[in-house]
Amino acid sequence: MRKSEFEIHPFNEAFYIQALLTKTSSILNDVESLNFIWENADYVDQNDEEILNIFQNIIINVAGISRFFWPAKNSGFYKARGERLREIYLVNDLNVLKNRDMRNLIEHFDENLDDFLNEFNTGRVMLNYTGLSTHIDDTTIFFRAFFYDKFIFKILNVEYKIEPIIEEINRIHEILLRQQEKGDRFTLE
Known about the structure:
Helix content is 57%, strand content 12%.
């Protein structure tokens, strides 16, 4: 096949921009929801589950963005698309979004939940927790948790540092908005 068959043509750029913008916008809307909760201290204590749901939704959308840059099928058009998008959005292989463990956790959540429940069937397992990490000992296992003091979200006992993820999403979102303003074209001006 000719190389041109594996390129993102200019008339298709808008579709990638809008697909990514949908995900980054959703994540940043979730961040705004979290900020609202935290600005209303009385609301925080009553909404641990909502906070954890929002963080889980963020991770789901981040995994979706990651697939655009590092497709599961790393051949042909998919590979070329991933390479081109990484080039356009200045994303390298050290980027926080490349975390394969995060993607696999979300893509195979049902199987990972089965494994989690099988592995951690004894001991102290908490369904949901939001609070300080200093209030928990190292032997506690978490289905979902958020530690305010470290800004870490934990799901199926796997930790994610949220701040660098949100910073990267915000950086990409700003590029996407500029591209949208420029007629949905891959530009970095």
